[in-house]
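Input chain follows. Return structure tokens only.
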Amino acid sequence: MTLSRRDLTFGLPAAAALAGLSGPVLAQSGLSADDQAVLARAQSYLQGLTSAQGEFTETGPGGQVRRGRFWLQRPGKMRFEYTEPAGLLVVSDGSNVMRYDPRLNVFRQVPLGQTPLSTFLARNVRLDQGVRIDRITRMASGAFAITARDSRRPNEGSVILAFAGEPLRLQEWTITDAQGGRTRTQLTSLAPASGLAANLFQLRDPTRRPGRN
């Protein structure tokens, strides 16, 4: 089986959200100088997030709540490990993105380059080539939010990335899909990480029997 955009939204809303953001900031038209500065600041922050770990709470369109932990190591590697529902995994090993649901005993895999994860996990993260910035909301506290969508597929939905201002930190994102369903992911913790174990970013197909081709 292959991974669809819906598969990646359930099981990795972070990557699906961030993946659409790519390109040089100053290419965006119709934005004020202050808005351009906000985009440049967000881009610099995301580019510097080369290795991190944390915990998240995800609220789906029907109000269902899921929780878990995540690790990322750019370029190319990440792991989202759900504790609710227990056992659900989404892992990128730098070449492929794999998703395993133990409740259904289903394993799916697709090349990283064919998923929306590839941009965010790239060596260089940028914020506007191929992306339409619909709105930038700035608060007096220094916090801000960026509303964006894929300019090539504007009807497939949008993402709101919300950042704390001082110190700058990605706090949450909300994905709205083409049907209007909203998935909100709050980062209950996020911290730089070093020395992450290589096996965090490895996932063998648990459904394969020994000797099976």
